[in-house]
Amino acid sequence: AQSVTQLGSHVSVSEGALVLLRCNYSSSVPPYLFWYVQYPNQGLQLLLKYTSAATLVKGINGFEAEFKKSETSFHLTKPSAHMSDAAEYFCAVSVPGSARQLTFGSGTQLTVLP
Amino acid sequence: GAGVSQSPRYKVAKRGQDVALRCDPISGHVSLFWYQQALGQGPEFLTYFQNEAQLDKSGLPSDRFFAERPEGSVSTLKIQRTQQEDSAVYLCASSLALQGSSGNTIYFGEGSWLTVV
After folding, report:
1. B55 touches chain A (CB under 8 A)
2. CA B94 from chain center: how many Å?
């Protein structure tokens, strides 16, 4: 079975500072990995996904993530935070061939300080 | 519509009442999923449909939960005799391809917020 651990349920950064949201996964087979963002009272929006191609994945809104097999990590970064980035971020893992498709972490709430 | 549509967006139910939550997936999407998201938690898988076939319902928490997709498009999640622990956001999602495809993108609706009082 696969699982995801997101370190830090709350992260605060200043506007313009680096954003780093941590995600570690566990999977018995090579996984697919995803980052979703959820704004208040809204559904989940896909930021980016890793599907065994390039290990550095670029997504929307300037976010990117790097798949590191040796560290079983898929951390999300953005060089410069904007106020509009404040939201909840979820890391998710999918095992190819699994009907469940996505197993989510518990989420990280990002606060951007002016 | 262009996205996954869910209704009602907000539902307050008295304990013991039955509720039905509707999901209109993106047109042509084969796969449909229901997730439950408790406050402060990540979404938890409930059930999966491929067209009209319910291929996995292992995430449904009890026999009070029932989902259907009779014509392979619209889906309904029904909760009978609601309990306070059923209070959560119920997210519907759909994707174009069959399960197992190469990390195909799953699109989520805005959710149905259920509060049981």
Report:
1. yes
2. 10
